[in-house]
Amino acid sequence: MERRNFLRIMAAGATVIAVNPSLIRGNLYAADGRLYTAYEKAQLVDAAGNPIKASALDSEMTYIFNYPYASTPCMIINLPEPTQQEVQLKSESGEEYVWKSGVGKNRTIVAYSAICPHQLTHPTPNDNFIQYVPKTKPTMAYDNSGIIVCSSHLSAYDAKAGAKNLRGAATQPLAAVVLDVAADDTIWAVGILGSDKFQDYFKSFKPEFKEFYGGIAQAKQLVSISAKTVKMTEYSKDIIQY
Amino acid sequence: MALSRRDAMRFTGLAAITAAASGYAKSDKTAAKSTAKGVLLSPAPIPAAKGQRVVIVGAGASGLTIAKYIKKGNPKVDVVLMDKRSVFMSGFLSNLVATGVLPLEFITHDFLEAARNGNYNFLQATVHDIDRTSKTVFTNEGTVKYDVLVLAPGIDYDYSHWTKGDVELETVLRTKFPAAFIAGSETLSLKSKIENFEGGNFVVTVPGGNYRCLPGPYERSCLIADYFKKNKINGKVLVLDENADITIKAAGFHSAFDNMYKDYITYMPSTTIDSIDPYKQKIVTEFGQEIEFADAALYPRVRGNKLLEIAGVAKDSPANKAEANIDPFTYQVIGDKNVFCTGDVRPMGFSKSANTANTEGKIVAANIVKYLGGQELSRKTWTSPLTVCFSAVSATPDLRAISVHAEYAYNDANKAFAFANAGMNEKWDGSEGIDGGKGLKEWGKGLYRDLFN
User: Fold this and answer.
1) Using one digit for the tens of pLDDT, what is the confidence trace for B410-419?
2) In a domain, A185, yes or no
3) CA dist., res. A232 & res. A239, Å (int)
């Protein structure tokens, strides 16, 4: 098991705590529990249930998996170049935290919550407005591509820098999914770093949960053991990207 | 405060009642017998302030955002949001409701839900007076004291260009041919006009000045034309535009007019209306051209809501009458830092749109929290609101939309704001247009989520 995914969390620039997220359960740090929460480890598997290997991820493709709840979509992307490291980020309420880096052999693999913190736009089986825009495809949201864009209100996030805000109305980064890549190249989601919008999300989409998950209770179930991970084009009927 | 009582007396209409009730009246004892005064001058039926109180007048996109985000920024601040309406109906997406593309429920929302989720008090009340000396808002439900007041009442219509002060004419125009840019009954009127239209000219006017929802009249023209086309109605939309050209997304709208609605839309730029006869249903332009119409949505110029004049904070802006007299960077009234004016009453030339008000509201809310904490606001605490807006150009067979997005930057040379980092998507005929249609709905849903959840 790699231990590269070691992260630091800073509470408003003061206390620095170092932990390995794959070793812990529950809230990491009570006073700022919103900054990092460890959830049950889940292995990313394909539609047939076979483990996905980090080296097998298509470059620049947005894959979707639901984590840490049955209804909360996340994206995992294998970027064309190594990510930045030790990126200092700030939540909308001003809490600072550090996103360590991408994972995988070349530090190119990143995963983020796909719920836009601006107004909660997220992929559904019907459509997907928020995804990675490959380098060769222009976007209206920013000067260059190779970034994550929510095409609902054109919030742009830096995929290689912890989903730091580049432009648009969002006032904090996408929450990051903390990943572990094991020695056998399998990928595991272990927790959520940053300020997530899960509670607002649960409040806002009750009819949708009924349609897609059977109800709010099912939507709130925690993911256990494995998380089905598919290309965004398989997850949603329509991909909308500006 | 002695001053405040005296000050309250200067307000016309209320003066007699105020004086009598406060016991300062030296005459007019009969007013004291009025049963109205007790209600009007007693505190409104809401809990006493627990901490510093911010009163927000107007629960549109601006007021709803500010109420929610002040509580998020500092839950200890006591927030009262008031509106005269009992139900929220949005202006954004209302053209789609008027033309039957979306159901009325889509744009209709619940103030109480917003108050529950946002942990603030909602007071359904009409404000009839504001005394900034005693920091009191007078409503039909009673009085409410504030530490900070936010005025976000939105626009009023300015019919003076057409009516030259003829109130009867204005009333007839408001009733028979409402503009439908203040959502509510006007929206329902427009919907029924379109549904019941039998044929002939349907006039849509576009005012000058910085009017609410720049693309709105053009979008509406497209959707009405789409409706005529689909329902085989022998009608024509005449777009009488006071401006020299389409004011925003011009290429997209022109191409929609020309390619989809050649037989259904006649666009008439630089058309200033000289007079309107609402009975003969005839418009005369400044060049003497006579235009008859079977029905119309007549959109006059806009001005700041009259509440600004009541509060004594109105000033003509370069574009419109009676907008807010505020510092454009802090939104604070000149000479009274405890009063903020936001949303469509701001005098800066920002787009008067819900998305602008929503992004602006978050900035203002954060600044109000800072201000209550003892910080001074200045140009340094300013950041730009964002305008992102989609406009439908067709609904049949697919909903297609074009869009614009922009920030604002201040130009010190001409002391005005201008678009910055702007972008447009004006292609509607390919997949972009269909994506735009989907984007339009998701854009609206996102706003409702932000305002009410």
Assistant:
1) 999 999 999 9
2) yes
3) 8
